[in-house]
Amino acid sequence: MWSQIFALIVKELLAILKDPKSRMVLIGPPLIELLVFGYAATFDLDHAPIAIYNQDHSAASRDLVARFAGSPSFKVVATLDGPRQIEQLIDTRQALLVVVIDPRFTRDLALQRPAPVQLIVDGRNSNTALVALGYANAIVSDFNISWLAKIGAPPPSTLLDIRARYNPALLSRWFIVPGVVAVLTQVVVSLVVGMSVAREREMGTFDQLLVTPLRPIDILLGKGLPGLLIGSAEATIGIIGAVWWFEVPLRGGLVPLYIGVVLFAMAITGIGLMISSLAATQQQALLGAFLFLVPSIILSGFATPVSNMPEIIQRLTLINPMRYFLVVVRASFLEESGLLSLWPQYWPMAVIAMATLVTAGWLFRKRSV
Amino acid sequence: MMDRLSILRLRGLLRKEFLQILRDPSALAIAFLLPAILLLLFGYGVSLDARNAPLAVVIEQPTPLAADFAANLEHSPYFSPRRFASFREAELAMDRREAVGVIWLRADFARKADDGGPAPIGVIVNGVDANNARLIEGYIQQVWVNWLQASATRAGRALAFPAVVHPRVWFNPAVQSRDYLTPGLIAVIMTLTGALLTALVIAREWERGTMEALMVTPVAIWEILTAKLIPYFVLGMGGMAASVLIAVLLFAVPFQGSGWTLTLCSALFMLAALGMGLLISTFARNQFVAGQTAIIVTFLPAFILSGFIFDIGSMPAAVQFLTHLVAARYFVTILQSVFLAGDIWSVIAPNAAALLIMAVVFLGAVRLTARKRLD
Asked: In 3-state terms, what secondary structure has residue B162?
């Protein structure tokens, strides 16, 4: 019995790994993607182009300009002497932000009246715009505090003391790289498994498999376990890359992480097998895999937080295994989470895995009658 | 070259392709259903704007000053604060992801402030999602500055912060992420459908052995390729039109540019995407490899390297160079401008030219490799 299933697993792995091109698409591109995306996927601003229009030529305004120029987030690409260029610079995306200092700046400062600093920002990418405004606000705040100290005025009665836990420097990379590991695992497993039954069906060999003494449950195991193996291997490659190449701290340890990997790979295998047994051709299987993959990546919290989604979509994400796995991966990397605190993420994945695997087995049987 | 026979053969092949599409509805589904579903899901689901973010507030010693600050947080549209009795409890709530951050007003807060200050307001955010954490910090900062200025004005004191920032966000004054994400999404989705549609079509003919059957007929290779290209171009443009309609009518994304510019650029982009798909298809020769490759070289880069969500300017130079190889990058830039800013030709022209070059290169490469393999 077990030897038959084992033989089926060997056959599945051979079918995937024997062809050099298939082997290549499973190993090469995911590694390259991890590398490229690890660097590319960042929300941090680094030397964003800004322009300065200073109409108040005084020591105070020059101090403020120097603070903008000295910030590593910004790079001053132009100093304007008239308002006409502002529109052109922003329209053509040569500058993300234009700092306009009012001619009355110093006078207002001296009179203790609000001294306006206008920040014109390109809103085509609203997130970048908000991040840039955030940095600019912080620069102006610093300027204010040192200005007050300089003129001998009392400091503000309260101060914000901001700290970020788990990621003190707020590096996007620490957030994104573990996410990329999860995405790549999901893409590879769902495609490997999703195509497996559909390919046999298109070629007619699935009927041959059905007339062997193997029961549907055996076929399920034989088709599912390779997905689990390949998924775990893929995740391992990603984790190694994240730790040694990107130096993301692995604080939570491997045990909570790998429990998540196995449960997640099982859930994705179940979904892949369901898609595969419903599809008559490989094109349909691929379409099905896509219809599952893309929403599940975008509605998982990979790039945009789940908590920002409308209530009804948030409820929809509850059936998305990726949503739970992302929390497990990020928590295992960055937080020192124990097994217990991750339990709310584990059990939904286990339930999804059970439900989809059982359904897939049922679909095999139904289709084989 | 283009004689009567050739036109007849092309017509026959086109008929075959259209029949094949109509008989296997999955191609129609990729062209229309996929973009519509994805756009609907993402249009509603994808947002970077924090609204009513759960925030834990700990006030160790209730004083009018602390209550006043908490009330200001309460009134901010960005937060829905919840009170916790102790910092430890608030911390646990943050670890359970029930709060994005903790505001901690210690017992000596009001006393310190009265003594001339400064009294620290402890802010601890969960930094795992760095971008969200930074936005939350920014919103808290904003609430705090406004609170200080307002209480200074009320008390008739000098302003706490003399230099005041007046932000003006052009093209998207409400700073809604949906307005910039939706045009980008159209580019991502069309990359997906364009490449996916064609990635499978030639690979399928090889895998089923019908390519050899086609080879022994008098049809020329360019006729086969043209016959593959035209129907999928029509399908893709149809999907594109549907996506734009959804964006404008349903999501009310402003459309400042002209329809002609959009159509022209979309056609160029579609040709590049289809060319890429055909190239994958001729090289892969089996549908599994073609499908994997299509996702890995088209969809994921379009998602991450196109500037759709992650700003290209912030990437390292080497990666920025790589983004020039991603057709979606040019299309995202064009779409964001055409939708939000209008027909700014100094932005559109170079990007459209890049798309044209990519289309020519990909289709040319298909033409060359396809001939070599059929000879």
From this structure: coil
Q: Taking CB atoms and an 8 Å limit, are B319 and A39 in contact across chains? A: yes
By the CB < 8 Å criterion, does B41 face chain A?
yes
A90 at B interface, C-beta within 8 A: yes
d(CA B344, CA A323): 39
Q: Could you tell me if B20 and B45 are in contact, meaning their C-beta atoms sit under 8 angstroms apart?
A: no
Of B120, B163, B313, the CB nearest to A159: B120
CATH number of A48-151: 3.40.1710.10
A33 touching B, CB under 8 A? Answer: yes
pLDDT tens string, chain A, 369 residues long: the values are 788 888 888 888 888 888 787 777 777 777 887 888 788 877 778 788 999 999 988 888 899 999 999 988 899 998 988 888 888 888 888 888 999 998 888 888 888 778 888 999 887 777 788 888 888 888 888 888 888 888 877 777 777 788 888 888 788 888 889 998 999 899 889 888 888 888 888 888 888 887 888 887 888 888 889 989 989 998 999 999 999 988 888 888 889 999 999 999 999 999 999 998 888 888 788 878 878 888 888 888 888 788 778 888 888 899 999 999 999 998 888 887 777 788 889 999 999 999 999 998 888 766 554
Structure-token match 């390519």, residue found = B211
User: Nearest 5 degrees, angle CA A235-CA A239-CA A240?
Assistant: 120
ipTM: 0.77
Chains A, B: CB contacts under 8 A, how many? 374
Q: How far is CA B54 from CA A356, B88, B99, B201, B330, in A?
A: 33, 17, 5, 49, 38
Is the minimum CB–CB distance between B170 and chain A shorter than 8 Å?
yes
Name the residue ranges covered by the structural domains of chain A: 2-41+171-368, 48-151
Contact A283/B133, CB-based, under 8 Å?
A: no
Check A121 against B167: CB less than 8 A apart.
Answer: yes
